[in-house]
Records
---
Amino acid sequence: MMTFKQLEAIYWVTQLGGFSQAADKLHTTQSAISKRVQELETLFNMPLFDRTQRTSRLTEKGEEMYVVAKKLLEQRDAAVNQFISSQEVVRRLRIGVTELTAMTWLPRLVNLVQTHHPRVVLEPDVDMSMILRDKLLANEVDVIFVPDSCKDERFTTKRLGVVENAWFCKPGTFDGMKVKRLHDLSSHTFLTQGDKSGTGVLYNQWLSSVNMQPSNTIVCNSLLAIIGMTVSGLGFSYLPRQSMEPLVKSNLLEVLKISPTLPKTNYVAAFKSDQRSTLLSSIILLAQECCDFSRALQTP
């Protein structure tokens, strides 16, 4: 059977140009190197070195054996380094996030992962919650950070944080109108993300439970576009209250103080129950640490 010691012998004799040099490199004797080479020659019944020459020159078959030895030794060294290294193996982790997460605390999460897992590469997929749920089922992402609307017994969920939403409109839109209750808005245009959004699903269910049916609805899949349409005065919408504060202070948005108030939205990390791993658990703990919807584009 061929051994790594034999492969090392032919490799270093070739690399260093002689048997004595290889012996010094491998901390052994020249006779031990010669023996290992002879064992290989006997095993394959062919000479590996041309012994008619003064220098150690490979035969044609010896050249082939050298290439094989080089490849196998590199693979051995890589395997050894992988298992003795204190660092993680380079790994890619596909995370599905909503637009709101990407706009708020995703930069902080990326920084924490780079700090605690420098050999892990994050691959974010920004999409609507229900689309991310389907991607998780199809194994296109490893974990998703979404509103807690994806009830599925195939998933395990871990709580991340809470989003406090409020009703918003362009300042002055309802001046002079008696808007004190939610139903006072039923004749006005409602801007919403619809049934592909986790928050949209939860709030549509809630609106039905309080018998609120706006007469005119504009559905848009982009949170940023809904903010823009609200600022433009095209309708009223629910938006994350704290992260919209700069727009309120700039007099671009106005909070509608009406009742009943919107319920808070719980955010969770969801992953397939049969896909547990130590790395995934660690990433979720980091997400729990930095999950914060109060400010846009949070830096470390």
---
Amino acid sequence: MDRLIYVYGLVPHLEMEEKPLSTNIPGFEGEPLQSIDCGEVTAVISGLNAEFNSEEALKDKMENDMEWLQEKAFHHHETILALYKNYTIIPLKFCTIYKNEENLLDEIRKKQESLKHTFTVLQGNEEWNLKIYCDDNVFKNELVLHHSEIEEKRSEIASLSPGRQFFEKRKLDQLVEKEIEAEKTRICENIHARLMEFSVHAAVKKNWSKDMTGTQEKMAWNSVFLIDSNSVDRFQDIIRSQEESLKEKGWRLEATGPWPAYHFSSFS
């Protein structure tokens, strides 16, 4: 029976030699994980039944079977986390599948030098994520209270006729909203710049909606950092210090990690 190759990630061959792959980690269909060597790179894989896991069958499951998708996506993530504990790993995307071993080996051979460089960048470094949230109502009250231009505008409007007040208040509301967004951006950029001092690489990602985060506050910033393991404590100290200084103004900082380097490695 034909077997497809499901790939979880790539690790340095020397690391796999020093610590052979555990047979206790189940693969996509329950069988133990396997490894395939290609020069200085080892692929961690799982065999798949080709009859039940064709491209069309997998596409149908991903689009129409949410329970299956959640179970398998969670399995993929947990497997990479287990591998990350023991190896420097380039994690591959969910459902990265090759028709056969030779196709996978060809792809690795083509990218051998690039993969070696990526391993060098990742070794001794950790990926961390920082999400910054802001309660706009709390921050708005705080900002208005200490914003001289807004206070001056309010005083001017109070002396106008009722008709003029209506239009001027609308203009003031627009000014307040503009100032809020500008100040939020400034605060987030300043925090990001401070943390960049401890980062090998960093990237700003798209903010998540409240539906995705499940939080009452809006996400104001979403960033990822690749940090030297020796600098992680200082990185976290700065985050705690920044949150302490901002929490009464409606801010909350959420740092998570270390994670496999999803954002700082690629095999695509």
---
Amino acid sequence: MEERPMTTMMLDLTCPETLDPLMKVAGPLAKRLSARIVGAHVSPAFEGVAPIEPFALSDAYYDEIRARYEADVKKRTKQVDEKLSKVLAADGSLTGNITHATAGPNGIGAKLARLARNYDLVVALQKGKINRAVAPEVLALDAGRPVLVVPEHTSSTDIGSHVMIAWNGTREAARAAFDVLPLVKPEGRITVVAIDTGQEDAGKGFVPGDTLARTLARDGLKVEAMSRKLSSKTIGNELLNAASDIGADMIAMGAYGHTRWRELVFGGATRSIVDQITVPVLMAH
């Protein structure tokens, strides 16, 4: 199967501090794919200042607050521009640019999702102490593009030698399984892992990965299928254990949830995995 190459990857640099850990993964990947790196930096919208009743704010005070906001945005914009330019120049073999935007009424996440739809792949850092803005799994739900989630404290520098596909037969899992193929090295291998939870309800039963593995293998890929009984507290933990056991350097899985509210409140495999990842995870919805 002739896959369209991933020629552009967008890095979520809304928090500029994410650049260094992201480049540990994005740098080698961009070189291998000959892909252009586009840093996306989204500033929050200016929301003004609510007056304290019964006193109204003077025009001069409002203008001062607005000027402070604009100065801060300009400062952060310059910082992320200089930081990305320095990283690209130091390497010499990477190309890229930065794009800046200001969030609209729906927030930073909505603006990032709109930007992401213009690129082949999104690379974003796990939400935590460094990425304090948009959770990448939420971006995966909204953007319609595959999102490669990089662990906050990643030791990964080169991925695609052994990819684990988390398989349950859903459309999200299918999307992830085929979206990840361009990231697999020519000499790399794939393990399709299906978790048997013991459920027999219609639509929720065990779906082995043998058929998917045979399909991918017909295209010349080194693929095997593996089934595991659920022995952990959650499917997410079982998948992480599987990845560790087989030595996978990347996981591909579907991002589940009809709305970000349901996903964040009720959790599931998506939430339990992104909270604990130790290797990059490609998520698709």
